[in-house]
Amino acid sequence: xxxEVWTARVKLRAAMKGEMPRYHEVLAGMxxxxxxxxxxxxxxxxxxxxxxxxxxxxxxxxPVDEVPVIFQGTYDLRGAYFVVMSxxxxxLRNFDKTGIKGDGRTAAELSFEEGLKVHRGAYxxxxxxxxxxxxxxxxxxxxxxxxxxxxxxxxxxxxxxSSKKEVLTSSAADSANERVDFAEIGSAExxxxxxxxxxxxxxxxxxxxxxxxxxxxxQADTHEEEKxxxxxxxxx
Length: 236
Known about the structure:
single chain; mainly alpha; two-stranded antiparallel ribbon; 9 helices; 51% helix
């Protein structure tokens, strides 16, 4: 792996990790992270549950071509790693056909990964609209707020520690302080899994985009409810 790609990957992760607190604070003002769900999750989840299915589906959508725009415009991603991430984004357009196993490390992440589809040039997360997936949707809403950018698979304390090789980057090299599997950064045993971490990052960008849309609609609908006293989400 070239130094350029490695350095750009570390910078991207650090920038994305630095944004995590806003997914707690955007609805809660400056309330500490640990208080967010205690004060706002119930109202948000009730609003989402009442939202008409078609409105929810429109909310959980994102143009596929918006991903590289975000990488360039928000994170100033250029050069070789931008080419890599653009190629990975193209791979995700047809991920169902690749035969690659699940990349996610948590039940919520795997649920989003499996339900994410591409239709007419847009990522669609409509699977999260189903009642059976509601808990996974809310788990993802919590997950994007950290504490880790890319969560690890929950440990099974009843079994021996995995022997998979891991590398812990130095704090100087990785300000995001993330543990990264060799298989996730280019030394995979199989080519199909070599860009697992990059696919996870792109799906995270996609979910954040969708969650941002949900937050904006929640704020708008809540404001309207306060004005007219209906207690029902807007259908606009």
